[in-house]
Design goal:
By secondary structure, this protein is of the alpha+beta class. The chain has one domain (64-431): Cytochrome p450. Helix content is 53%, strand content 9%. The protein has helices at 2-27, 38-42, 44-54, 71-79, 91-102, 106-112, 124-132, 138-142, 145-157, 167-172, 174-184, 191-201, 212-235, 244-250, 260-290, 293-300, 306-316, 348-352, 386-403, and strands at 57-60, 65-68, 83-84, 164-166, 252-253, 256-257, 322-327, 331-333, 336-338, 343-347, 408-409, 429-431. Strand 8 and strand 9 (336-338) form a beta hairpin. Helix 9 (145-157) packs across helix 11 (174-184) and helix 11 (174-184) runs antiparallel to helix 15 (260-290). The longest helix is centred in the middle third of the chain and has 31 residues, at 260-290.
Length: 433
């Protein structure tokens, strides 16, 4: 009976979505943002370009979001205090709380009311970020280079008898998970479970085809992670150690310390965000190089270009495509009136391809100068783990070029994942020699 109800509900959702797409096309001279279409999944950039050319801020009936795709507005919204990340303040919060209560998700409800820095505005965001930053100094992250390189080689050693391997499974997934787990002082035997939880969590974050089963898996994973970190942190309260969790427990600024729930949210955020973004950066970056063989060959013979190439990879094929902001109050912006709580989709990928920010934005060029991108955010919410992601990716490419100088892409058209927030591959088959 329940399965039939779910099928009927999903059918009605799809019909409603198609109706909204039709309405959007009617309202915009035949154009609509269709996140379910194969064309969008394969190449969202053409859609972002069309949206940018049509309106400064494009309202999509099918997503109920105002999309911002030009760099000037994206940067302004990401740093402007008139735009909020804290969804607890707006009407969406009432629906979210009601949904979580109905679903019996007490842990998720508690964390919704006690979010990580990702969902906090200043001054709360500033306070927690300052304390968290003690575990993410550039000096400390740089000191991890030898350990990161060792981890990369250990991952690739497992492929030594194989003529081909899946880059995502062999390196892009395990590397950031292992590094973050080691930084946190978590047991190696928990690594596979971390990866599973992280992947399951994303089923409800931008998943285009999320089903009832997938949503349950995502919420189960969220709650299991919170329980896991709760146990670890409480066990170590009296003997914190000198790893990242230890630094969180000991972090203090003018008498202020993180409370336990803030630590839970911080650990969960860093595990998932750090793992997923770096996984996609490595996969998307190598795929883009394979699509541009002359630049691939040039890069593998000029390691000094790798840092600049990574910035171009971040600009051209970013791992995170969008984030959300809300109008803090009733406002006039870009010549239009918006009500308090209006939701804006800040298109990171759209801004990166804005021709006013980067000349010839649809061309991939590892020697590009003055690369402008917002792939790690902008303003107060700039990604705290950006330096770590850059180092991991740099060392990954150096090691792969050393070990597999003649590697090739087996599947010339691998399937992009169906997630319009996190863009990347589930698999990327590589011929080693």
């Amino acid at each position: 009976m329940k399965n039939n109800f779910i099928k009927i509900r999903n059918y009605l959702y799809l019909k409603a979505f198609k109706f909204l797409i039709g309405f959007e096309r009617f309202s915009n001279n035949g154009f609509a943002l269709n996140i379910l279409s194969t064309d969008f999944i394969d190449d969202p950039y053409s859609t972002y370009s069309s949206m940018r050319s049509k309106k400064k801020i494009y309202y999509s009936s099918s997503t109920f979001l105002h999309w911002v795709t030009n760099m000037e507005y994206v940067q302004d919204m990401l740093r402007n205090k008139d735009f909020s990340v804290d969804d607890r303040k707006y009407s969406i919060a009432k629906r979210r709380r009601k949904e979580l209560i109905k679903d019996g998700r007490e842990i998720m409800l508690d964390q919704f009311d006690n979010p990580s820095i990702l969902k906090l505005d200043p001054p709360d965001h500033s306070r927690i970020r300052k304390l968290v930053s003690y575990g993410f100094t550039n000096r400390y992250i740089s000191s991890l280079e030898s350990e990161i390189k060792k981890t990369i080689n250990e991952c690739l050693d497992k492929t030594h008898d194989e003529s081909s391997f899946d880059l995502i499974d062999a390196l892009a997934k395990p590397l950031p998970a292992i590094v973050i787990a080691k930084m946190m002082g978590l047991p190696n035997e928990d690594l596979n479970q971390f990866q599973k939880w992280s992947e399951d969590l994303l089923l409800e974050v931008g998943g285009i085809t999320s089903s009832e089963i997938q949503r349950k898996k995502a919420r189960d994973a969220y709650e299991e992670l919170i329980r896991y970190f709760e146990r670890i942190i409480l066990e170590r309260k009296d003997n914190p150690g000198d790893d990242f969790i230890g630094k969180l427990i000991q972090a203090e600024e003018e008498g202020d310390k993180l409370n336990v729930k803030e630590m839970f949210g911080t650990c969960l955020l860093l595990l998932v965000a750090g793992h997923e973004t770096t996984t996609r950066l490595i996969g998307n970056g190598l795929f883009t190089l394979f699509k541009h063989p002359e630049q691939f060959n040039h890069l593998k013979n000029n390691f000094d270009l790798i840092p600049n190439a990574i910035e171009e990879m971040l600009r051209f094929e970013p791992p995170v495509h969008a984030t959300v902001r809300f109008a803090h109050d009733d406002m006039i912006y870009a010549g239009k009136k918006f009500k308090r709580g209006t939701a804006f989709a800040i298109s990171i990928a759209g801004a990166n391809r804005d021709p006013l920010a980067n000349k010839n934005p649809n061309e991939f060029d590892i020697t590009r100068e003055n690369i402008k991108h917002v792939s790690f955010g902008y303003g107060p919410h700039m990604c705290i783990g950006a330096h770590l992601a850059r180092i991991e990716t740099k060392l990954a490419f150096e090691t792969m070029f050393d070990r597999f100088p003649d590697m090739k892409l087996i599947d010339k058209n691998p399937e992009w994942g169906k997630n319009f927030i996190f863009r990347g591959f589930d698999h990327l088959e590589i011929k080693a020699n």
